[in-house]
Amino acid sequence: MTAGGRYLGGLLVVAAMGLMAVFAVSQDIRREVASGIGLGLLVQAPLGWWTVRSVGTERFQLVWVLGMVIRLAVVAVAGLILVPGLRWEMVATLGALVATMLMLMVVEVLTLLGKNSEIKAR
């Protein structure tokens, strides 16, 4: 299986787990949890794929640093502007956002482990 296939498969698993989590939480925080998961998927999915594609290139460190800065900025903007502005529950929204991003970072690592096992030494 290719790195793209592994990453997409992991992304779909995390999205399915997120959907189950949305229906597992109480009704009063369901919107916040769904929004946090959705934002996490929206931000982390392309950043993770960008990172996976840059491994082994000269730009990897730049991609990794920019990705981490973007992730941190998204959490900060959500916590300081989005959540208070929409009067959402802070812990539910940020908890779901950060948990989703962390799970997708694990998907990145697992994708890279598989990708690196395909590299043949001379």
Description:
With 122 residues, this protein is mainly alpha-helical. The protein is built from 4 helices and no strands. Helix 1 (3-24) runs antiparallel to helix 2 (30-54), helix 1 (3-24) packs antiparallel against helix 4 (90-117) and helix 2 (30-54) packs antiparallel against helix 3 (60-86). The radius of gyration is 16 Å and the shape is flat. 25% of the residues are buried.
Query: Structural class of the helix and strand makeup?
Result: mainly alpha
- How many separate domains make up the residues? 1
How far apart lie the N and C ends? Answer: 22 Å
Q: Beta-strand percentage?
A: under 5%
| Strand runs, count | 0
Low-confidence stretches: none
What characteristics describe this protein?
mainly alpha; single chain; 122 residues
Short description:
This protein is mainly alpha-helical. Helices cover 84% and strands 0% of the residues.
